[in-house]
Each structure stands twice: as C-alpha cells, then as structure tokens.
Amino acid sequence: MSLNLSSANQGHLQTIWLKKVQFTYLLVAYRLLLDKYTKLSKAMNRLVKYLGLLLIGIGIITDLVDQSAGSEIPLLVGLFILFISREKREDERAILLKSSSTSIALIIGYGFKLISSNFYAHQLISFQLTDINYFLILVFALALSIYYLRLYLSWK
Amino acid sequence: MKNALKVERAKQNITQAELADKVSVSRQTINSIEIGKFVPSTTLALKLASVFNTTVEAIFILEETDWT
C-alpha cells in the first residue's frame, strides 16, 4: 500500500515538474517574442519618423518650386506622419506635452487665420489663409515645433 | 509641490538616466520632475517611491500654495 502511494506520489511530482518545465519554456518563448516585437516596434517607429522627415524635405522643395494646387500635399503628409509617430520612450510627460502643444498650435493657427483674413480685407497684406491644407500645415508645424522645444529644452 | 528626488537619487548614488530606465520614462522626464516643472502621475510617483524604498510622501511634499 505504502509502495503504491509513493509511486503515485512520484508520478504526481513528475507531472508537476513537467508542468513547471513547460511553463518555463512558454515564459522564455513569450519573452523572446516580446523582445523581438519591441525591437521591431522601435525600428518601425524610427522608420516612420525618417519617412516623415523625408516627406517634409521633399514637400518644402516641391511647394517652393511647384506653385500648382496639390503641391503642398507631401509637406502636409510628412508633418502628419511626424506628428503621429511615437517617441523612443513615449512616457506620460511626452503625451501631455504633445496634447497641450497641439491645443496651443490650434489656438495660434486659428488666431493667425482670423487676423490675416482681417488684414487682407483691409488690404494691409496681400495674402490670406484660405486653403485648409495650408492651415493644417501651419498647425502641424507649430505643434511639432512647440512639442519638441518643450520636450528637449527644459528650463526652470 | 516640492520634491526630494534629487536628494534620494544622491543618497542611492544613481544617475537620472539610470532612474529613468528603472521607472520606464525618459531622462528628460526625471529632470523635469526634479526641477519642479512636471508633476508625475500617481503610478509614476509610486514607482519612484518603490525604487527608493520609501513612501510617496517622503519624496513629494505639498506646499502652502498647492492648497489655493
């Protein structure tokens, strides 16, 4: 009887040990997958950022050289990509700074639109901000400038 | 709000970058907290306290002006 019990016990212990080994293997596999995903995600973030910068560069040149309608699209898309791209370490401060910078940029941009329209109506300036794309370019450019200034330059 | 993050960091002899790594934020965030420009969330405050083996109240101290 005692012999039977001890063999049953041994079997039970073996099952527990096997389960532990399986769990450890699963944990290691999960960890490796997670590491791979994190590395891939970081590489993708960097790639997206470079793509945004490249499009901004192309967009500025295109917009200066070509005056036709739609020439501002690469610049707008580039700014948008850079705007939605994630930081290397996007923590709570980065998220807070991005949202507050966007609201500041929107207020400045719309204020500029109202003032420029008013000045144009009174023939004080020769241009006005009517195209939505140029308004968005102004807002995105302002938001990104304010965001990166506040993110990397901190003074008391 | 005052904080004793710099003091605690000096006690443990760790750099801003090392602390940032431990609590998964950027070095700039730690710097902003130290100079009082950024007030961290409850989660981050608890993480910081845990790194220094102390309480949140020992690191972050309310000032008179915080009550108004």
Automatic annotation (TrEMBL), chain B:
InterPro entries: Cro/C1-type_HTH (IPR001387), Lambda_DNA-bd_dom_sf (IPR010982). The keyword DNA-binding applies. It comes from the Bacteria. The keyword DNA-binding applies. GO terms for molecular function: DNA binding. Keywords: DNA-binding. Residues 5-59 form the HTH cro/C1-type domain. This is Transcriptional regulator. It comes from Larkinella knui.
